[in-house]
């Protein structure tokens, strides 16, 4: 149980994380999260709007700093554009680190289950979505049209989500073999930098 003095949103997020880890997110109801946090049955809807809002807030709280810091470091140095490989590493390495722990595997799985159908999380800040990555890739690969950049970035995200999120696996995700991060980085870098189809 969360400490009764903790702010309500924090208590709900902590309760959701505990239950998702213990039972798997698909098995956890909003009612169970409210009860685990010691709050009234309407607390999740009041603070997050919906179950999806709660899930998105949990993912953003837990995962956003991992990507925001890396992307800021890469895109913040004036005059020197990062390489495509550096950008891909900034995307892939946090996933590779996360899947080393059970908490991390649960979060990756939750992210994949929620982001794969649309290519992004609903109601999430732009920093956490694909836009910054897409913008910087577009700058580094000016020979590609904006549409081509967007499509390649979408394919890259889908591959990363499938690889590390295992969206079809049972929750919680147990330890299994993941590909070497260097292989994933090399593969995605090759896809992003492939020559544009002249016929297109």
Structure, explained:
The chain has 200 residues and is mostly helical. It has two domains: 1-49, Arc Repressor Mutant, subunit A; 62-193. Helix content is 63%, strand content 0%. The protein is built from nine helices and no strands. It has helices at 8-23, 30-36, 43-48, 51-75, 84-98, 102-115, 131-140, 146-165, 181-193. α5 (84-98) packs antiparallel against α9 (181-193), α6 packs across α8 (146-165) and α8 (146-165) runs antiparallel to α9 (181-193). The longest helix has 25 residues, at 51-75.
Comma- or semicolon-separated keywords:
200 residues; mainly alpha; Arc Repressor Mutant, subunit A; 2 domains
In short:
This protein is mainly alpha-helical and 200 residues long. It has helices at residues 8-23, 30-36, 43-48, 51-75, 84-98, 102-115, 131-140, 146-165, 181-193. The chain is built from nine helices and no strands.
